Structures are given as structure tokens and as C-alpha cells.
Amino acid sequence: MLKFLVIAALLFLTATQAANSSLPQMRMTPAEIAASGAEELETRGAGSAAGQRRVLFGDPTAASYYSILLFVPAHTTIQAHSHRDNRMATVVSGEWHFGYGNEFNSSALKTLPPGSVYSEPGGVNHFAQTGAEPVIVQISGYGPTDTRYFDPAKDPRAKQHP
Q1: Going by C-beta distance under 8 Å and a sequence separation of 6 or more, which residues neighbour residue 64?
Q2: Which domain holds residue 76?
Q3: Is 18 contained in some domain?
Q4: Which of 3, 66, 135, 136 could form a disulfide with 60 if both were Cys (CB 3.0 to 4.6 A apart)?
Q5: Pairing between strand 135-142 and 87-93?
Q6: Which of 89, 97, 101 is nearest to 129 (CA)?
């Protein structure tokens, strides 16, 4: 029995080490992020054609771990939507106003200053807003991910692509 446990532990450690080796070492200042060659996409999926997201690691459309930076302009409202995967987020800069529910509700927003963390549970509708300054949020999850608006009429992608 002990031999079996030792072999199982060694196999687990080997598999864990192999999985961890695919994550590159990365240390980036905000200026380096802005100048990096990381994939940059419009955030139509998140609700603001003026904003952008930068994929730091992985592929959000694949069954794998991913990490993105979401750049949201000042005075932006993101309507209630959900994602199929569980996501964790950290506010990097700016004040992010975030809430849960099926409809945007300013009284349900909680102000999250830089350094705050929050979750986006899979299938749970949430919404957000920025104030007078832009916001950067770092989001990580295990894809594939998607964005589904609670009210399809409020999906900014539908407005941009008639």
C-alpha cells in the first residue's frame, strides 16, 4: 500500500511539474504591458467597443487557463451579463464599480479600489461601471469563456454589427 501511495505521489508531482512548465516567467510594469506584443482585442465581448483587452497568457476560447487585462474607459457602463466559466479578477488601477444581478442597478454597485479582488461565478449575471477615470482589471479563468447578456437588446455587439 505504501509503495502504491509513493508511486501515485510521484506521478502527481511529475504531472504537476509538467503542467507548471508551460507558464512562462513574466514580470511586467504597466509601461511594458502597454508596449508588449500580447494579443490585443476590442472588448466587444465585455461591453465597450472603445475599450480593449490584452491576453497575457493562454487562450480564452480554449479549454485551458487564461489571464487577460481589461482596459475600460472612463464613464463606461457594462450591462448585466455572465460567462460560462468561473473567473477571478483583481482591480489593477482606477475605481471599478461592480455588482451582481440580472439588471444594471447603480445602488447594487460596490466600489472596488486598486488591489481589490472579486469573483465572476460561471452563469451568474454581473455588471460594472467606471467613473471619471479609466480602469484596468486583470481577469483569470479556465476557458473556454464567453459573454452572454441577460437582455440581448443591451448587448453592445448587436448594436455594432447590425
Answers
A1: 58, 142, 143
A2: 28-160
A3: no
A4: 66
A5: antiparallel
A6: 97
CATH code of residue 94: 2.60.120.10
Cell numbers found for residue 148: 452572454
Residue 133 carries which DSSP code?
S
Q: Does the pLDDT at position 153 exceed 50?
A: yes
For the chain, how far is it from start to end, CA to CA, in angstroms?
A: 65
Count of domains in the chain? 1
Q: Which residue's C-alpha cell is 443591451? A: 154
Cβ contact 112:96 at 8 Å:
yes
Q: What is the pTM of this model?
A: 0.76
Convert the pLDDT of each residue in 120-135 to its tens digit.
999 999 999 999 999 9
Q: Tell the burial category of 104 from Cβ atoms under 10 Å away from its Cβ (0-12, 13-18, 19+).
A: buried
Distances (CA, A) of 69 to 32, 91, 103: 13, 10, 25
What is the DSSP-derived secondary structure letter of residue 34? H
Residue-wise over 119-154: b if at least 16 C-beta within 10 A, else e?
ebeeeebbbbbbeeebbbbbbbbbbebebebbeeeb
